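Slide 14.
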Amino acid sequence: MEKRRLAILGSTGSIGRQTLEVVREHRDLFEIELLACRDNWEMLARQAVEFDVNNVVIGNDSWYRDISEALDGTDTKVFAGMDSICALAASERVDIVVASMMGFSGLKPAVAAIKAGKVIALANKETLVAAGSIVMGLAREFNAPVLPVDSEHSAIFQCLLAAQGNKPSRIHLTASGGPFRTWEKDRIARATKDMALRHPNWNMGAKITIDSATMMNKGFEVIEAKWLFDTPVSRINVLVHPESIVHSMVEFEDGAVIAQMASPDMREPIQFALTFPERLPLGNKKLDFAALGSLSFFAPDFDRFPALGLAFKAIGKGGNVPCAMNAANESAVAAFLHDRIGFYDIPDIVAGCMERIPFLASPSLEDIFDTDKEARLLADGMVTELERSR
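Slide 15: predicted structure.
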């Protein structure tokens, strides 16, 4: 495999750090052209030194002086702001862009990289949730391959590769069920952020862990799967699979099902996206089927986890509704993490925003950014109203 030059957007987050773990195992195969994050300049500086990075960007320019001083005397060039992230991600010196910035903020640099024809290793769900039709249309126009990094979508991708061109009749997306899988609804209603952050299988950032607890994360993945694999939502099924060993499955017209299985370790799908189509050794835990004993699957409970149903409703209506849903969810989750609202207030706020945002059937990219801003303001106002009512 020829050496590949990487831009890692969101390098200090969970996916970014695990991407660098993969690079550590294969230093001869990767060069880091760009690392970018929003605020964590200290970790960003350490990463830049360890990997002899050519460029870093700190998204929050108030930290520019700090990281510039930290990297003084090195060969690393330091930049600040979203425009710099976009410009450097689109640079001719980049082969693969690992799009792992958190939330809606990842959309703009992903679009810039796609327009430059880069290979996109997509870990940012919100890019396709908010603007899936636009993003995938641009990917086709500019011949920019979009390779999934999410374990579920990587699994589907790998199953489809094994299918040798046969089209699936159904996609089965698996979900761990999160920390509240066995809880009764009234107990979930009293859940605190500390309880919600205790994911049983995966080590992830706070926001995505809360999304897993509400199952909004799985709703996002349904929407992602629609756009990544050009599949009607009616053919996408969600299954709760507590062991997180089967990462997803593809079913065919004759009833045959191909499943992709691995230990719950994000480095496997990350590495596959970076080395595709080759598979390289990885120092992860390999499956011991005798030790597993059994695997279980259950239908999701839409009553206890209404956020999942909201995602199906949003993509069913289409247009700018999924964008509004995502924006409201980001605001509501942030409020929950700051102890401002309760657990079930999250889907209530999302539902309210979905109903109140003016509907646009065929939004432009500019409309998507406007919808995001409007939905956040609306959600923030609903958070304030809930606080005052208590």
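Speaker note: Residues 365-388 form the longest helix (24 residues).
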